[in-house]
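thought: user wants a sequence for this fold. calling inverse folding tool.
action: design(structure=
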């Protein structure tokens, strides 16, 4: 990142002063096409646009496809900000239980038949918060049901590069027909160099670009997109991700061991990524544990923050990249014993 930033500063001064193109840097979009092809997603440049972040990508899609009162399906549990964003769009939120191989397919099919949702928002790879990954069998059944009920799927793939081996992608199996793929670089490169992307049908991308211009007068910062493009083109990104995956593998193992010693059991061991979704085997209420920890300035993530149905009171999500401070473990021991 530093090398890319220095190279940028020495070359094109216009990038530092001008607005970017409405669809975003063509150089970065072409690099993204290569990366999409690695997931067996064939696309052209007019099927990809850049956004200010992954969250902005989701927001634009909701602005484009939803009307107040529309029903949107999410996983239970799911990333908490999906729910906050959907409430801002006045959507009606329904949820489907999530399993180690993806959403409960039988329940998914029932919901589509009974609720007629407009969108389904999910993570196929290294699901947030559970760390689970979609199986190929589940993926095919989801797409069959979605086609039968005219459902559009938003596949948030921001954690995909943390997988040691690529798992099935809905966007690849569907061919970007009714699946919209979104991603970003905030988790893999830097949260301060904000840039997301959307890949989808060319006619939808055209409308989404117009909507982005209307709401934010263009895409992400040209400085951010130039830096990211230089990193991807320079070949250092793969080495960076290899090293990051190795560090996270060690961290997951170590954190899981320490959690189990406290009576906190991982729901599953993810193949990659940051998150461990864990059950409190002592019967403690996760929200009460989190409140006790917060009194000592330690922030924990209780399960019901992620649950539409509020059925995850005995679960917590842990980010293994943020658990190296010994004080956190001391506070957790006390919080688990708090009345």
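)
observation: tool returned 339 residues.
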């Amino acid at each position: 990142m530093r090398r890319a930033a220095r190279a940028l500063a020495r070359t094109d001064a216009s990038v530092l002063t001008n607005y970017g193109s409405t669809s975003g840097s063509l150089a970065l979009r072409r690099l993204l096409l290569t990366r999409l092809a690695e997931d067996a997603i064939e696309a052209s440049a007019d099927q990809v646009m850049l956004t200010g972040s992954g969250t902005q990508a989701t927001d634009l899609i909701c602005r484009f496809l939803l009307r107040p009162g529309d029903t949107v399906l999410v996983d239970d549990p799911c990333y908490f900000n999906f729910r906050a964003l959907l409430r801002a769009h006045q959507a009606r939120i329904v949820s489907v239980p999530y399993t180690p191989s993806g959403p409960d397919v039988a329940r998914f099919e029932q919901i589509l038949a009974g609720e007629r949702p407009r969108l389904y928002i999910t993570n196929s790879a290294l699901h947030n918060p559970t760390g689970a990954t979609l199986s190929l069998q589940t993926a095919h059944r989801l797409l069959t049901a979605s086609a039968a009920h005219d459902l559009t799927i938003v596949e948030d793939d921001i954690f995909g590069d943390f997988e040691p081996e690529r798992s099935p992608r809905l966007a690849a199996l569907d061919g970007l027909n009714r699946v919209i793929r979104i991603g970003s670089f905030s988790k893999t490169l830097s949260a301060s160099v904000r840039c997301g992307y959307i890949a989808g049908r060319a006619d939808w991308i055209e409308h989404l670009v117009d909507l982005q211009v209307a709401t934010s007068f263009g895409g992400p910062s040209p400085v951010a997109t130039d830096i990211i493009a230089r990193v991807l083109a320079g070949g250092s990104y793969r080495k960076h991700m290899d090293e990051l995956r190795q560090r996270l593998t060690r961290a997951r193992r170590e954190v899981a061991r320490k959690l189990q010693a406290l009576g906190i059991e991982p729901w599953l061991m993810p193949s990659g990524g940051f998150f461990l979704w864990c059950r409190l085997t002592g019967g403690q209420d996760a929200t009460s544990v989190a409140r006790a920890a917060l009194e000592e300035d330690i922030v924990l993530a209780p399960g019901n923050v992620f649950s539409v149905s509020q059925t995850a009171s005995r679960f917590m999500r842990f980010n293994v990249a943020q658990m190296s401070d010994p004080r956190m473990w001391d506070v957790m021991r006390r919080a688990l014993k708090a009345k």
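thought: summarizing for user.
answer: Here is the designed sequence. The first helix runs from residue 2 to 10.
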